[in-house]
Design brief:
It is built from 2 helices and 5 strands; from the N terminus they run ααβββββ. By secondary structure, it is of the alpha+beta class. It has one domain. The chain has a 5-stranded antiparallel sheet, covered by helices on one side. Strand 2 (about 55-60) and strand 3 (about 65-70) form a beta hairpin. The longest helix has 17 residues, at about 5-20. The protein starts with a helix and ends with a strand.
């Protein structure tokens, strides 16, 4: 299971990479590669597309932990909850 720090690192890697590369559409396979890479090769977070310009990260048992979306100008990410259950601040806002 991913820690709060690992989730934050994954979201930062996604938004930074997508914004730097000017990615316009969410590619779940590419996003999974980025997330798995930043987690040292472990698949502790699973990436799913939610339309052409958004996606989500789930923990291994299927709980949604974060979302990523293109707002028209840039990619942003939002934590849905911390692993302790509290709502977490947005990343990239």
């Amino acid at each position: 299971m991913a820690t709060d720090v690992e989730i934050s690192r994954a979201l930062n890697a996604l938004t930074t990479t997508f914004n730097d590369q000017k990615v316009q559409a969410f590619d779940a396979a590419r996003a999974q590669q980025i997330v798995t890479g930043v987690l040292g090769g472990e698949r502790n977070l699973l990436v799913f597309a939610e339309g052409g310009r958004a996606g989500r990260l789930d923990d291994p048992i299927g709980r949604r932990v974060a979302s990523v979306e293109h707002t028209g100008r840039r990619w942003t990410a939002r934590r849905e909850k911390t692993m302790g259950g509290a709502k977490a601040p947005a990343v990239g806002d």
